[in-house]
Structure formats: structure tokens, C-alpha cells
Specification:
This protein is mostly helical. The protein has helices at 2-7, 31-34, 50-61, 68-81, 103-115, 133-149, 163-166, 192-200, 212-222, 227-232, 235-248, 251-256, 270-287, 289-309, 317-335, 337-356, 363-393, 399-425, 430-446, 459-466, 470-483, 506-516, 537-543, 551-575, and strands at residues 21-22, 25-26, 36-38, 121-125, 153-157, 171-176, 180-186, 496-499, 520-522, 528-532. A hairpin with a 5-residue loop joins strand 9 (520-522) and strand 10. The N and C termini lie close together (10 Å).
Length: 581
């Protein structure tokens, strides 16, 4: 497997030295795209059909000069070759949940996703693993047919092959520990050429009924002969070197065959990649009813619970605080989007890890697509929450205020979504991401200004967890949007009561003071005075250091936080190694 990774340019860990040539010429930048690599693990998008998956691979790997009709014709040819016609329109499914196509069909699909690219060489890493013996034979027979009938060059590693499987191969490269060559050459009919080599160099006779593969392993591992040394001194090795020298003479001719198009790292530009990625991701999301249905249902349930808790809040002093907490609860519900977004990001990143290894698309295309598609469905869930919560809670019905609350709440969902993706982007798995989430979310909630008033926050923390806190700007924008110019009317128990001096009305005694002080006095003509600390919502929000003039400023600041999250996602897509081999 290590040798196969190195030859196919998939090796990312360790140090490679030497020269790798193809027909005597250096491997072009497009080598990973114009060659196929069927990995041992069958990683596929579960919510697309077999035909859709093959079309996606073909469109992104075949050059732009190939028409869509020709590409689809190639896909249908591969479906027939691999005998997948009966399940071509079935969803691939997830093997862990035992739905979708069989393990045997998934293995063929892995091979087919490489064949549709019309590779010059097809590498396969243990194509018979994880399937039963009869399926393993069928897979190798299909590979044999591809080599004999279609002229496809195939290199694969094989693990403990049976006699039937071993006899399908033409040539063998046998290595021992340390990467030393033991044999490299033809196998021959019924493995006679291979067996004769070992018997001629001191190995015991191979029983007629023995499996040639097992016989060779027993000979190499069970005798005292230094087989790498035997090979280095053999005539067969000299024949291989002579053939390599002949191939290297083709270098000038092979280099001239590499055109500008075939030498490109990717077959298509970034907009084309993004278009097809968005189409596939959107289709997968649309079919994922469990994921999106649960997300919408949770938003609807939370909206009903919170809105009926704060049902038809009035404009009393007590309900001023209730409205602040209603907005805060809405923000915290939206922040929970982080937990639902991350598992989907890891699923998409797993697909990216496999598909990027064949240069189907790059990191920028993946990052942009995974953000845009997730935002579309997140916006739907946020809209459901808004439609229920806003009207049941009885918030400000002015059209301008309704519109601002809606776009800001959707922006909040976008912030939470991109924050979740940014955390996931630099986490190796969902367990680590779930452990990191509270580290980011807790300071955001505590420093939002709703739990601790601005005046009570220590000066140092004001700069750290308040002024640099995106939730603070959300809270300020949504609360002042709700309470600006709203007339406050105290309930009887909310008044501060006092009696004016004898011979003076409340107006005579406190009239001048109330002109400059917040709030209002009820009963100015009488002597029993009742003082309400707030007359309009702005007087209350000013105690929190929140002002209506900051509304659109805060919206732009929040947009800046969203863009920063997107930048982090793209940055980690670029530099985080998803293919560690």
C-alpha cells in the first residue's frame, strides 16, 4: 500500500526520494487526475444514486473538451462493464446503517468512479478486501476483462489471493520487509514461470495442488535463502532493467504528447467545480430528511416553547426585562446550530479527502460550496423559528422592525453555522469539536450583556469578552430594534410612590426634575405621586449601554464576524491535511 501511495502521488507523510517516470517522462501536474486510484475504503456520498455518483466523477475529471453527452455515454459504458445496471438508480447508502447497495456493489462502484475518468493507469489497493470469496473472484475477473478487452492498465495490491484470483494476473512485484524486491516479472500460465524461478534458485518443489501465492509466501518466509540477494544477481532482474532503459528512451516522445489541457492539475476551473459541488451537496441535503427535518422541528419546538413563555409581552417595566430574555433565548437557540452543523461538515470533509486525492476539485471549491449549501437550509430553519416566535411573543409589529429582526436573526444563524464549521475545520473529528464548542460558546453567552449589565463588567473584561463579542452586537441590535420609541406603562406594583409636601401637587414638587430625568410621574395634579422609572424603551436600553443608532452598525460588525468565520473555514480547508498517508 505504501508503494502504491507513492507511485500514485498520494503519499503525504514521510519523505520520498528518487525519480518517478511514466513512459520515460516526468509525471505531469495532472497525473492524479488522469490516473485512477480505487482505495481500500469505499467512501462514497450516501444520498446520491450510483449513476449520479459516476456522472459527478466523470464530469469533474474528464477535460472540458468532452461534451456532456459523451461523458454520460462513458458512464453508461462503465455501468454495463461492471454489471451495475440493475442498481444504477439506487441510492448508495451508508454501510454502517445497513442501507443502500451491498458491499460488493460498493467495491465495484469504487472501481467505476475511477474508470469513468478514462485513466491511463488504474491503481487498486486490495480490491478484494471486505467482500466474501466468491465476490472477490468476480471483482478480479472484471478487472481481468477490463485489461484484456478494454486495454486498461491495472496495478493493484492483493491480500492472500486464492489460486483462482492469483491466476488472473499477468505480472507480479513481490516485496519483503524493508521494500526489498524478491521477484518482478511474468507469472505465466498456472504460475509456472513464477514457480520455476523459485524452484530453480533453491526453493522446494511446489505441490501440484498448492496455491501458488501461499507457496511463494512460505518459501520467502520459511527458508534461509536470501531472496533479495538472489533477485539482484538474477537474469530476470537484468531483463527488467533492460526494459526500463528501453522505456526511458521514449521520454522525448512522451513529453511531446502532454498538451496544455492534459497537464492541468484540475480538468475544470473553480466556478465549474463549485457549480457541480453545490448541485450535489444540495441534492444530498434535500434527500436527508432526518437531518433537516430534525433541525426544523427543533427550531419550531424551541420557538413555541419560548414564545409561549413570553406570550404577548406588554410594555411594562417587568416585561422590558422579559423581552431582553426572550431575545437572549432566541440567540442561544440559534447558537445550537453549531452542534447540528458539525457532523454534516465532517461527512462532507470525508468525501473531500477521497475526491481531492484524484484532483476532482480543490480546497476553495469545497470550502465555498459547503458554506453556501448549509446556509440555504439553515436559513429555512431560522425562518421557521422567526415566523412562530415573533408573532406569538407579540413583538414590535412595525414593518421596518420586523424586517430588521428577520434578516439579523438569519445572519445570527449564519454566524453560528460558520462558527461551528470553523471549529470543525481545525478539529480532527467530531469528538474533539464537541469538546471545543463550550470553550467558544460560554464566553459569548456570558459576555453578551444580558446576564451581566455593562456597568457591572470589569474594565479589562469589557474589552475582551464584551466589545469583541459578536453576541453582544446581536443583542444590542435586536433589543433596541424592539424597544426604540416604545411607550412604557408601569403596572401598579412597579411604581415608586411618594407624597408631595403639604400644599404642593406632584407637578409642583417634582415637575422640573421629571423634565430632565428618565421615566414619568403619574398623577401630577394630586399629592400622592407615583413614579415610573422609564417612559420609553430607549431609556431602559441606555442603562445597558445599547442605542438605536448602533443598529445597522452592529449588523455590519456581525457580518464582519461571519466573513471572518468563513475565512477560517477556507484557511483550514487549504492547510489542514485531510489525506494523511
Amino acid at each position: 500500500t505504501t508503494l502504491l501511495d507513492a507511485l500514485s502521488q498520494r503519499k503525504t507523510i514521510g519523505k520520498l526520494e528518487g525519480e518517478m517516470l511514466m513512459n520515460g517522462a516526468p509525471q505531469p501536474a495532472s497525473f492524479r487526475r488522469i490516473t485512477g486510484y480505487a482505495e481500500q475504503q469505499d467512501v462514497h456520498a450516501p444520498l446520491v444514486t450510483v449513476r449520479e455518483l459516476l456522472r459527478f466523477s466523470a464530469r469533474l475529471r474528464q477535460p472540458g473538451s468532452v461534451s456532456t453527452a459523451e461523458t454520460e455515454k462513458d458512464v453508461e459504458r462503465v455501468i454495463r462493464l461492471l454489471e451495475l445496471t440493475d442498481i444504477a438508480d439506487c441510492l448508495v447508502g451508508d454501510p454502517e446503517s445497513a442501507d443502500g447497495i451491498s458491499l460488493f456493489a460498493r467495491k465495484l462502484l469504487t472501481i467505476g468512479s475511477e474508470l469513468v475518468a478514462k485513466p491511463k493507469v488504474c491503481f487498486l489497493d486490495e480490491p478484494t478486501s471486505s467482500v466474501d470469496s466468491s465476490s472477490a473472484v468476480k471483482i478480479v475477473q472484471i478487472l481481468r476483462r477490463l485489461a484484456s478487452v478494454e486495454g486498461q492498465t491495472i496495478l493493484c495490491t492483493i491480500h492472500q489471493p486464492s489460486s483462482a484470483i492469483f491466476n488472473e494476473f499477468d505480472r507480479l512485484l513481490l516485496l519483503v520487509r524493508g521494500g526489498h524486491v524478491v521477484y518482478h516479472g511474468d507469472i505465466g500460465d498456472d504460475a509456472h514461470t513464477l514457480i520455476n524461478y523459485f524452484e530453480r534458485n533453491g526453493a522446494p518443489k511446489c505441490p501440484p495442488t498448492a496455491n501458488p501465492a501461499e507457496y511463494i509466501l512460505d518459501v520467502v518466509g520459511g527458508t534461509s535463502i536470501d531472496w533479495p540477494q538472489v533477485w539482484s544477481e538474477s537474469k530476470e532482474r537484468q531483463d527488467v532493467i533492460t526494459e526500463i532503459d528501453r522505456i526511458n528512451t521514449l521520454k522525448s516522445e512522451a513529453e511531446s504528447d502532454v498538451t496544455d489541457v492534459s497537464s492541468r492539475e484540475y480538468a475544470h476551473d473553480v466556478p465549474f467545480q463549485i457549480q457541480h459541488l453545490i448541485s450535489r451537496m444540495y441534492l444530498m441535503q434535500w434527500r436527508n430528511l432526518q437531518y433537516n427535518g430534525t433541525r426544523v422541528a427543533l427550531q419550531a419546538f424551541a420557538a413555541l416553547l419560548i414564545s409561549f413563555t413570553f406570550y404577548r409581552v406588554s410594555n411594562s417595566v417587568t416585561d422590558l426585562q422579559n423581552q431582553v430574555f426572550a431575545v437572549l433565548q432566541s440567540l442561544l437557540v440559534s447558537i445550537l446550530v453549531i452542534n447540528t452543523t458539525q457532523p454534516e461538515y465532517f461527512r462532507q470533509r470525508e468525501l473531500y479527502a477521497r475526491e481531492s486525492s484524484t484532483n476532482q476539485y480543490g480546497w476553495l471549491s469545497f470550502g465555498v460550496s459547503v458554506v453556501l449549501v448549509e446556509w440555504i437550509f439553515m436559513a429555512v430553519a431560522s425562518t421557521v423559528y422567526f415566523a412562530i416566535f415573533y408573532w406569538v411573543a407579540g413583538l414590535n409589529a412595525d414593518g421596518n422592525r420586523v424586517g430588521f429582526f428577520y434578516i439579523t436573526y438569519v445572519m445570527l444563524g449564519l454566524f453560528a453555522m460558520t462558527l461551528g464549521q470553523a471549529i470543525a475545520a481545525f478539529s480532527p473529528n467530531d469528538l474533539i469539536a464537541s469538546m471545543l464548542n463550550p470553550v467558544f460558546v460560554t464566553p459569548l453567552a456570558v459576555g453578551s450583556g444580558a446576564f451581566i449589565p455593562y456597568s457591572k463588567i470589569p474594565l479589562l473584561l469589557q474589552k475582551v469578552i464584551y466589545n469583541a463579542n459578536p453576541l453582544r452586537y446581536f443583542m444590542e441590535a435586536l433589543v433596541v430594534n424592539q424597544l426604540h420609541d416604545v411607550q412604557i406603562r408601569c403596572r401598579p406594583k412597579e411604581f415608586y410612590q411618594f407624597t408631595s409636601p403639604a400644599g404642593m401637587s406632584c407637578g409642583d414638587y417634582a415637575g422640573d426634575w421629571i423634565q430632565s430625568a428618565p421615566g414619568y410621574i403619574d398623577g401630577l395634579d394630586g399629592s400622592s405621586c407615583r413614579y415610573c422609572p422609564y417612559s420609553v424603551g430607549d431609556e431602559y436600553t441606555s442603562t445597558l449601554n445599547w442605542f438605536f443608532v448602533h443598529r445597522w452598525r452592529n449588523f455590519c460588525i456581525v457580518l464582519g464576524f461571519v466573513m471572518f468565520n468563513v475565512f477560517l473555514v477556507l484557511f483550514m480547508c487549504r492547510f489542514y491535511k485531510v489525506n494523511k498517508r
